[in-house]
Amino acid sequence: MRSTKSSVKSRIGSACTVPVEHIAAARDNASRPARLALATNDRHGRDWNRSIALAAIKQSIRASLYRTGITPAIARLRRRTCVLMLHGVGGAELDADVFGEMVVYLKRHFRPLSLAALVAELDEPPLVARPAVVLTFDDGLANNVTVAYPILERHAVPAAFFVCPGLIDAGSWLWTHEVRARLAMLDEPTRRALAPELPTCGVGAIVQHLKELAPTARAHGIEAVRAATPAFTPSAAQRQACDLADWAQLALLDPALVTIGSHSSSHDIMIGMDEARLEREVVGSKARIETMLGRKVEHFCYPNGDFDAAADARVRATYASALSTRVGLVPPLAPDRHALPRLAVPDDVSSLALRMALA
Fold first, then answer.
1. Which of 125, 152, 171, 335 could form a disulfide with 331 if both were Cys (CB 3.0 to 4.6 A apart)?
2. Is pLDDT of 286 > 90?
3. Computed over its alpha carbons, how large is the radius of gyration of the chain?
4. Does 128 lie in the same domain as 11?
């Protein structure tokens, strides 16, 4: 999906950067409406080039701070534990080689810990110079096993994979992945008919709208998208990005290296669920993973980072820790182990170094 957006942006960019002498020549022979259009094109071309130049300057600064060791040094001096949030590896979201560079960087400058070790340190912080870092992967994607795990294993860096047992059993995608892929098939009028109450009918806007609905209304909305896309068949690239790891793949992971946690049973947003649904999503997911993999499950990760008081209470009663999507480093004093903050991992090492330094 991202590569498609990038290609569209590239086409727009090339269309806007018309040589100045061509614009000037055309302007001399144009009618007033045409001259206005050419002027707009000229201005947009300059704006686009300015944006590209600014992005290049920012990336150059980030790279310099990383190469000179400034950003790693700042992060180490803060001595704050960082929990990193990742999703897919090996596709448009995060290149496998870049992920490998990140693992090397993290091992060189920080103390990679398992989630269990982090929770233990929250009670008795060690007197060590290097701050800890924990890698966490949401969604239980197959590429976490096939692409990320061999890299983690090669460098002996632990991580936590959070999976959705209900989706694994059903052989389904996360609903957000499925809905995005299906909506991308539809033209604008069809998308608008699906969500007439929204000011915009972009794919992201519709998905966000569904996230904000109550569980029953969200389920109806998802079914409406499915009904509008009966011919949907995932491409090979979509499957590489969105397929979930199955039980056989997860069973191959070394328990000493990879912690398996629950990401709920169905990856639904945990707001407004009744007691029976909470029981399935929180307690039932834990029991199912333990049954299928024969290992203890002690950690939870909230889908989309959202939860209400009822979900919070049930998770606290069931798990040793829980991860949120609240941005930040782990507080040094009395951190809430059931709402641990995280930093999302960007798509290059220098940006990661800067994010960890400034968080």
1. 335
2. yes
3. 23
4. no
pTM, rounded to two decimals = 0.83
d(CA 334, CA 345): 25
End-to-end CA gap in the chain: 29
Q: Are residues 19 and 38 in the same domain?
A: yes
321 dihedral zone (left: phi>0; alpha: psi -120 to 50; beta): beta
Average pLDDT, the chain: 87
* Position 307 in a domain: yes
Same-domain check for residues 158 and 180: no
How many domains, in total, are found in the chain?
3
**pLDDT tens column, 308-321:** 999 999 999 999 99
Residue 147 reports pLDDT greater than 70? yes
**Tens-digit pLDDT profile for residues 339-353:** 999 999 999 999 999
**Looking at the structure, do residues 274 and 157 belong to the same domain, yes or no?**
yes
